[in-house]
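ARCHIVE CARD
SHELF: 3
SLOT: left
DATA:
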Amino acid sequence: MENKRNSYIISKALYRFVFASILTAAAGQLASTFDAIVVAQFVGEEAVSALSLVMPVTTFISCLGLLMAFGANALAAREIGGNNLEGASDFFSTAVWSILTVGIAFSMLMYAGIPVIMDIITDEESLRALPTEYLRVYVLGAWLEMLSYALCLFVATDGHPRRVTMAVMAGVLVNAIVDVLAVGFLDWGMKGVACGSLAQFAVNILLLSLYLRQPACSYSLKWPGRKGIQCFAENVKEGAAVSISNILMAVTVLLISNIVFDALGEHGLFFWSVCLQMLLVSVVFINGVMESLFAIGGVMLGEHDLSGFDLLTRRALITVSLLVVVMIVLMYIPGVVGVMFGVEDPQEMAALDHVLRIFSLMMLPFAITLILVAVYQVFEYILLSVVCVVGQLTAIILAAWLFAAYSPSLVWWGFPVAAFLFLMGQLFFSYLYSRRQACRVSALTLIPYREGGRTFDGSVRYQSDEVNTMLMKISDFLKESKLSESDIFHMRLCCEELMTNIAQHSKGHVIHHSFDVHIYSDDEETCVALKDGGQPFNPVLAGRMADPDTGSEGYEHLGLRLINKIVDDISYKYMYGLNIVLIKI
């Protein structure tokens, strides 16, 4: 049975999550860009290049954290969507303990191997001193970066991205203070910048750890025991594509740095460093949208809500396109970017503006490819995800090498050419794959149209007549399911009470929109998910307090009390600005 479902609730969750995620990532990237600006002002242009040279190492460190935390976060989101908080805690705990053991071990190993790392980064003796100085401090606290990122992911996925934003902003402020003091006043140079970054991660960990003690937290930190090995394997498998993407990004940066240096010299390397910083800022937007797909989308998959995930994906593609276009416009404004990176010579400024305008053309196809890869990974097209990640970066490297070899002055055109051609090939493949699957999946995103059992979707305005109409449709749907007569009656009664409660008690601008109803039914269970954008209200708790003998609510919520009596599996969560009630029979 099909019902019209609008995008209001999904858009509200997406924009709330993406806005907070972008602020979080932007704050983190601001710290990195501020590092580059500080060393450019106090140390010189060669220090900016040094930060680009060590980026492959810092990216590799973050990839280790991704491998242990990103997949775990996506898996935990599905468990939260299915109201299995014990399962969510297993994945969370495994990720944390993995970082505290494997992460610290790798930090020590990398410190001992700094000379070898520098041999891999560059064979130019004149470029080695500043990166070595930075790494001698940074790698000792590499595990702090891993743990900080993991906690950011898990707390945001649990419905509190704004809390993560505030914690990261506090960390960025500390980083800025340490940078200015250590580099500008104490003259610590690259060591001071590294100290600022580690101080930022430590503050993040401290502030986010406080959330784990709150009742609203879905996770409990515990020793995973025998489950740990299985959870670790699942975490690694789920996070493999994203980790490989970041590792290859580090390799790509290293290879392109050498290609550009050989073709255009130190000025070319500086231009590449500035382009890289702008690309990383755009990646902030891309990652914010990708994380929403893993977090909000993971919860939806736990609810078997494919139609909702499809709406989420479409909104995500539109959102990331608009955000990246803003970056492109910024790169077309003469002199703006050059001033930030200490460029004063008019000729050098004009040359940098020319390079930025060409380079910016790659950002939109680059972003769309990554969003589609995130969708592939959510639906466990693992091989396709890896192929797309490897293919895109390989295409960029080959294009840069070919242009540098045959026409060095046009090397910057290699980036947009490679990104556009790869996206076209990716979309052509997804179209062919959809046709081979008899169009059971979307030709653009490969999202399945159906998942096993039967589904019911609809959006309801906050009006009693529309609620009654929807309840009639729900009754017809439930009668076609394999539930018993008593279960159908109980589920219908629960929906009526909860939906009426939502319509009657919601206030403000939300009453001009609608709330969502999603039902999934198969041979094993029937699940109902109700989502509204009103003020936080826990119907489960209100029902339990409605007992006149033990509670303080009197008879106000006796209907909700009745629901608690007739349904054992009912849960409530306030996530992404939404009240979410999940019922299972």
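SLOT: right
DATA:
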Amino acid sequence: MSLAANDSPVVIVGAGLAGLTVALHLADRLPVIVIAKRELNEAATAWAQGGIVGVLGKDDSIDSHVRDTQDAGAGLVDEAAARFIAERSADAVAWLVEQGVPFTMDEDGPLGLHLTREGGHAVRRIAHAADATGKAIHDQLLEAARAHPNIELRERWMAVDLISSRHVQRDESPRCYGVYVLDIDNSRVEALQARAVVMSTGGAGKVYRYTTNPDTSTGDGIAMAWRAGCRVANMEFMQFHPTCLYHPQERSFLITEALRGEGGYLKLPDGTRFMAAHDERLELAPRDVVARAIDFEMKKHGLDHVWLDATHLGEAFLKEHFPTIHARCLALGIDIARQMIPVVPAVHFTCGGVVTDLLGRTDMPGLYAVGETAYTGLHGANRLASNSLLECVVLGKTCADDIYSNTPKTTVQVPAWDESLVEDADEQVVIAHNWDELRLLMWNYVGIVRTTKRLERAQHRIKLLRQETEEYYVNFRVNRDLLELRNLLDCADLIVRSALQRHESRGLHFSRDYPYTLPVSFPTVMVAKRGLRKK
């Protein structure tokens, strides 16, 4: 890719739906580099089964979608953000159709699309590609990015940290000038000068022992923006998906919410349905309600899992609408047309993140964040199903437009990465041990149901782990495992500190010490001690 002589590229960290949307909207106007720390197809987008919201049907409206988003978000949704994104949902779906995404079709449906329904939605408004929507979208956009002459894709490159004003020794309000990136295969760090940097690294699900997220979800963008001085909000709201397959050979396979949307029942081992005891919406209650109900029933009855029963839907229906789930379960010896599916809750989505506006702008000029990395106010205290892909597409476009219109060319020379005072690590056991300890203590102490004592214990251990890991970072050459652990520890600290500040139970945050919900509440906004001050 040839770059303009006096212009730097836009560097996009993360190759999921958010990052690829920004890249494709920008590439006809500016040079773009997209980096992925593992294989390009390993983004969390490809794991999304359900679909993307589109306010398309005659029985639907913007107001209805906004209400459903607010109801799921338990009083913390920013209505302006929800309305802004809902108003653009039809255009977002239409753009994906134009890109060639193979959605499931229905000649009688709006835009010729089949729409399904998921928990928390008043009507059918989810456009989908059978039960593998994320993969269908990601494959198509990745193909388009590969074909574009102005997009450079770097596989197995990982961001280390942002390059800001303090690195270039400029006496000014902090600004982002680029990013240090690790070439994983060659173990070298390169300084990438950038017109703008977009963080689209996904969430921080791997901070927990059990998650539906891929290995890439280590909170990299959130941690880097926080270290650079940006505000981070609502990190206590980690969404647990109610139904992850419980099987020793598959610890992160998601059973889509759409299966309950089409009529699946949650049951105890004796076949009794239990959701009526928890919510009048039964299996279609929002995810936080269903996850807590399952957790309650498991603890009450001493169970390792509960059951999801879809046998009454029929084999033909299940094969047509849920082919991926049917095939994966069958390969594991579970015929979902004749047997109930063992399921447990697992961490699924990070509702908080780096504070941005609806153009993806963070507190630091030149630095943007889009998708699960960002906090826009859309998700509040609990994300409504299938709003995540929608947010990526809508704000990916507005972000690209703002970068093109409002980021100046830069000729500032960024300094090279300094390794003069470090050496190769003699062993990796410290990283492996700290990684395992962190994920286990977060699962045990900062899970679906929390107490102040558990949170304080977690905070104490995280502090010690951060000290050990930071000492390792300062003295040895970096590698992917070390960088991911460092980022996860920062995110874990933010989750616990945010949870300790919320003296109520709301949405995804449930505390035994504060089981009530306050009549009025606000987002939990964390401000870095160093702040965005002049250097």
